[in-house]
Design brief:
The protein is an alpha/beta fold. Helix content is 51%, strand content 11%. The model has no long low-confidence stretch (mean pLDDT 95). Bound molecules: fe (ii) ion. The site of fe (ii) ion has 6 residues, from helix 6 and helix 10.
Amino acid sequence: MDTSFSFILPTRIEYGAGIHKQLPKFLEELGSRKILIITDPGVSRLDWFTHTVDLLNAQKVKVEVYNGVEPNPKDRNVEEAAKVAQRIQADCLLAIGGGSPIDCAKVVSILAVYGGKARDYEDRSRIGPQPLPIIAVPTTAGTGSEVTFGAVITDTEAKFKFTVKSPLIAPKVALLDPDLTLSMPPALTASTGMDALTHAIEAYTSRVAEPISDACALHAAELISAYLPRAVRNGSDREARAALLTGSLLAGIAFSHSDVGAVHCIAEALGGMYDLPHGVCNAVCLPYIMEYCLEANQARYARLAEALTRSFPPSSVPIGDIPKAAQESVRLVRQLARDVGLPSFRSFHVPEADFPRIAEKSSANGSNKDNVPVLTKEDYLHLLRSMQTG
Ligand SMILES: [Fe+2]
């Protein structure tokens, strides 16, 4: 860990059951009168979404909806939405949904003001000083995108996921309403929850971890491991939903100040090439990569094992035996992924002939340098082969 660190959180966080109904108040505080809502087709069909649009119209706020965001948000979604924002001269973006609409809105906030193509802004020095403000309303407990500075977008031509990253595109306000996550089906609850757990674990074991991200990551790991099985079993469990939304928020703060690692490097390569769901990719790869990296970072994995069992005393973690406790963290994560019903890597049907290309993309990912240890293309190839036979 570095001996110096900095911490910036430009997002105002407002959390509470029913808080999304206060949206007009937050828009008024930002002085917004013309807003573009960025969402996906599923969310735009929900009753509360229609009520929200009605509520805003009643306040004489001009509202336009772009509901074309696809999973693993595409460059074309960003560019289409930016055109709508320019046409209506939007003064604010309201991103409602999982990580895809929120990530999409982050890049729209730049394009709507400064023009160009989504991928132009992979070079953060090109991001102008005043993108459009964003209010983010997450409807899943997973990506933490409502408080992160990054957006992961798919370049549809290159079949490659790239990241646009700057504190300038972090939402101005995050409205976290656990009631909005109640309708998530079990499989989506499981995969998004495992995405959040991956953020916490990768942030905590990263080369660039720092004390504030550590605190957030450990508490996130504790909450997610304790409550994810409950929310998957019973989607109406409000206590579990609230804990998971808090966990994903904390994990988002953690990894945006630390980094993700090798799990996300593979997950992003797989998502870009085959359009596979991000959370499922992470969940499938997580225990394999933890095991592979364990020896280089035993004390941190041992501490994680404690967090993962904190809510289920007596703990199975052997206190004082760091190598064994570290090993226990892998078993706990594997068990959790099994308990919430996540599939195997084999079920993706990824052709083995593609492994070298996936390994190449994973090792070239910007987050690979922060993984402990830094993995080579050969390491990734080895991991892919063991996941295929595991
Ligand atoms: Fe993620």
